[in-house]
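Support request, please re-run this one:
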Amino acid sequence: MHTITAQIILKPGREKSVLNRHPWLFSGAIGRVEGSPQPGDLVQVLDGNGRFLATGYFNPNSQIRVRLLSWNVDERIDDQFWVGRLQQARRHRQMLNLEPATTAYRLVNAEADGLPGLIVDKYGDFLVLQSLTMGIERQKETILAALNQLWQPQGIVERSDADVRQKEGLPRLNRVASGEPPPETLVIQENDILFGVNLLEGHKSGFYLDQRENRTAVTHPHHIANKTFLNVFAYTGGFGLYAIANGARQVTHIDSSYDALSLAEQNVARNGWQRPQDEYLAGDAFDILRHYRDTQQSFDVIVLDPPKFAHSQRDVDRACRGYKDLNWLALRLLPPGGLLATFSCSGLISADLFQKVLFGAAVDAGRQVQIIQTLTQGPDHPVLLTFPESAYLKGFLCRVW
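Re-run finished. Output below.
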């Protein structure tokens, strides 16, 4: 894919997003295509007067027709280009000095690292790669070779099983792409807390790496010491284990998955903690919270970290109703002075909209709520200013009375 196969001519007046270096070009902006590009081919993007704007890769099967890689007319998109972008991402992660206390973090954050469609996470001696677009799929062997050269992992797992692959005309893939297969449960370290992860079967790439800083902020000892803690959508323990480490008196984990909760319980034991007072409840979070409300149970600190509620624009209204109901229920369970940490990982729900939803929940619950900290994804998940969509995780730490 080193050769430009076609030119994409924009409709008059539709070049603003490209000039602003937004990496997505939608079908509606395209006036005509000169040439016969195949899915994943390199193309040049020109304005209506034939002036060069950018180079990217093309896919006629996607609403995002072109994902832009370079705005420099002289830059060649060859093997060295991909290696160079990976080297840059590596340098940026090394500057975070996460190791040795943390051994699992994001190495490549797609568009935000100048590599649209590519996600790479590090889990100890293994890497997990997600190829989300046809353009990355065409470059996968080059990328795998570069990852092996730069990081020398024991093995690379490919978790190209996201729904967006279907929109690109690609099948789901879940495999060991290179090197050795990982153990069924790989033990990683995050801020010196041990977690077992399943790289081939777990959520996302195995763990919610983007919440690392938030787990620290929410469970600071002055928030959590000797308090009761409710961890909703607990997955394999995340926030709950941090709460235990920082002195929580009792922790209740809720998740729909028995397997995830079983791993959470194993993770507690893995860290040498004996916690007979803690609970692990498998079921629908909304139903369990309603039961707590009806039986007048309360918790000092509640974390709501649900999965993505809005997958497309048509889901936004329904997602907002879900977030409002969830937060309304949680607000009913907190005593005066209690803390609520609430999150949305739906990219289509802005921080402003999420705050309005939380406001509505507070009014309906009859509670006063202060935001004491705004929360977002960790620095290994950088946000590109020209690509606001990369700021997908938003959260608030709130005091309630």
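The chain is about 30% helix and 30% strand. The chain has three domains: 4-70, 79-186, 208-400.
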